[in-house]
Fold this sequence. Notes:
Layout: E1 12-15, H1 24-32, E2 36-39, E3 51-54, E4 67-69, H2 77-89, E5 99-104, H3 111-127, E6 130-135, E7 139-151, E8 156-162, E9 168-171, E10 189-190, E11 195-212
Amino acid sequence: MMMSQFLFRPDAVILANGVFPTHAIPLGVLRSAPHVVCCDGSIAHWPDADVVVGDGDSIPSQYRSRLARITEQEDNDLTKATRYCLDHYQSSVSNHCRLRLAYLGATGMREDHTLGNIALMMRYYRQMNIEPLMLTDYGWFVAAEGRQTFDSFAGQQVSIFSFNTTRLTSEGLRWSAYSYEELWQGTLNESLGARFTLDADGCYLVYRTYDAK
Length: 213
């Protein structure tokens, strides 16, 4: 998959303080983003960011002039950065109804942080009216609901994580989807062609790889 085929154009990128991406697609999204918001220490990886959001505990001193300090501890830095984007970039939304945010560097270190950050994509989608997309060096997660058709290619690896569905069907996948009761049940599926469709009575996360198996 080439960067030119990746159609998601975010209103802003949030760069978390996990493993910095090396794959061309997340790096391309980062470089072309109209706004970049860093979570605390991730500013060291992207010094040109618009702002750094967090409590400032891991920000190098040379970047403290760009700190938007948020000291409350109920939410993690990823959610603080998300709220910052809602407050400052909502006006960027023109031909789409949700603020589009891409999340990079949110995985790859502590596993509990990784699981929590992935699960937050559904919170942002359902509770904050955001269209979130989380990119890693291997693929990307999107949140969706109802009937949706996804661009794909033959051999693309697909995983589906059901959150509150009692009905879930699919078209264009090697193995038919159903309303999964466990997170592992919807993993390791495969696309048969240029697109696939999911139809559900609730919300779900979809993970797609950049490369075919």
